[in-house]
């Protein structure tokens, strides 16, 4: 094991530093290239490579959700916005606000038949992994809209850069930073149906080398069902300092405190079901940027403290103990990219991740995880080469887990600039996921003999710009093959166990279109089709969204419709599916230079629907408020 880790270190640092100062060349993306492009197909992304590269060059399909869309949603959490804007991404809900954790929790994230709840879809903040390490899944209430500058969603396996848990893709939340000198204070206050209130305040400041962002959010609701109230507070701070022309230091911290009641299924209400969650994240980055090389050294630490009352049903008795768990994840990632010659970029990286936690109900007699500690060490190299109108990409990751040893993760792809506004892309990427602590050690199904899950993703993408760059379209066809998938199966009368149950395949289509019809009138739409060999709950076969925004004078008017078809609420011997259509609208008026007033309505058709079996969603709701920019 020690030899393997030493090999990874040597492999990585050989890639990182033997390249610096080598042959002349220029970046695949220069600042001039980015500045002169107006088509959003050429927008720069970092999730697929760690360094800025145009989206139409990267072989893997990536969706970008910008700050303007996030702000217009008036949502506290990011996930409702992403579900509308990203084809193939679906998130379960149970009420006006709040997702919760434990039994009856919403916020299940699914994409392409991969489940965030199973740890197959990785959420990142500034490229750092974020999830509750005991359970291996994201905590949906921890991802806040006001903290995000933009979100990049990599649709397809991304394990070459991010390791385990990225086999179904990544959601990279890139946090805000001050970009212009001076101080800018903004706030939002809103209230509406079921006693729902949302407050947010953000201050950005920049003065020559120093920049900073501080924000805070508060949200509460009485809920549309008995025992479904929710409240949360979040705080975020990010400070940056330019040490020199080439070097920059950045530090940030994010804390979320959320309390929720769990109402249980409508046919069997739950009493005293409560969750009290504290999540935190801190990071420190040291970035460098020279003419022929750029990179960063990033340190991060995440932690969580959960207190859960699993409640009781009518006729039962209150729980004598709370379920309590603490978890942590810390690590460092180092990467450096260089140009060896014209049109070439090679990126080498090194990752270390340490994580663990404990969980118990009765700290003496009912302990589920007793301060377990795990670690992963990895090195990778990713090479890109432009040849005429082609961009070739190939890479390899070597990861070592202290329980499972070495895992080789290859990735390859090619993109072709067929015309000025037409790009064709193909990628092949391996994904994998190591079993989480819950699957290995906790509860009756625990099985320490589990093996890692693995998959291969094949993606073919066409990007097309039309009408003098006013319209852009993306079409992706994908096929995914996986094996060693972990499920809880019956092994005898009244006995269950987590087992690697075999292989699966998913295939589908993803389409998105944006069109600037007039200077003040825009349309965006997306559609996804998913065919699952083994269906999972919370994943629809068909998902469609269309939104339109019109800005006449001081008004901003927008409306959107989402259609969900063949959504699996339950699988197995008696599968249960549903379909529904939601229509939303928003109107805002720029009252004075520093104030907007707005009103928004959701589910305006008053549809009865569920995204989780037994948890009906509210029908038509309304919110109104003001936005201040001082």
Summarize the structure.
With 630 residues, this protein is mainly beta. It is built from six helices and 37 strands. It is globular and about 70 Å long.
Which features characterize this protein?
single chain; 630 residues; mainly beta; Maltoporin, Chain A; 5-stranded mixed beta sheet; 6 helices; 60% strand; globular
Describe this structure in words.
With 630 residues, the chain is mainly beta. It has one domain (2-629): Beta Barrel (Maltoporin, Chain A). Helix content is 7%, strand content 60%. The chain contains 6 helices and 37 strands. The strands form 6 sheets. It has a 22-stranded antiparallel β-barrel. It is globular. Residues 2-39 have low confidence and may be disordered.
The biggest beta sheet reads: 22 strands, antiparallel, barrel
- Structural class call reads mainly beta
What oligomeric arrangement do these chains adopt? Answer: single chain
Shape descriptor reads globular
What is the topological layout?
Blueprint: H1 2-17, H2 31-36, E1 44-45, E2 53-54, E3 62-66, H3 67-73, H4 79-85, E4 89-91, E5 109-111, E6 114-115, E7 122-125, E8 128-130, E9 148-155, H5 159-162, E10 169-175, E11 182-192, E12 196-207, E13 210-221, E14 230-242, E15 247-261, E16 264-265, E17 268-289, E18 293-313, E19 323-338, E20 344-362, E21 366-387, E22 390-401, E23 405-419, E24 422-433, H6 437-441, E25 453-466, E26 471-483, E27 486-492, E28 495-500, E29 504-518, E30 521-532, E31 540-550, E32 555-570, E33 576-592, E34 595-602, E35 610-612, E36 615-616, E37 621-629
Parallel strand pairs: 7-10
Antiparallel strand pairs: 1-2, 3-9, 4-5, 5-6, 7-8, 9-10, 11-12, 11-37, 12-13, 13-14, 14-15, 15-17, 16-17, 17-18, 18-19, 19-20, 20-21, 21-22, 22-23, 23-24, 24-25, 25-26, 26-29, 27-28, 29-30, 30-31, 31-32, 32-33, 33-34, 34-37, 35-36
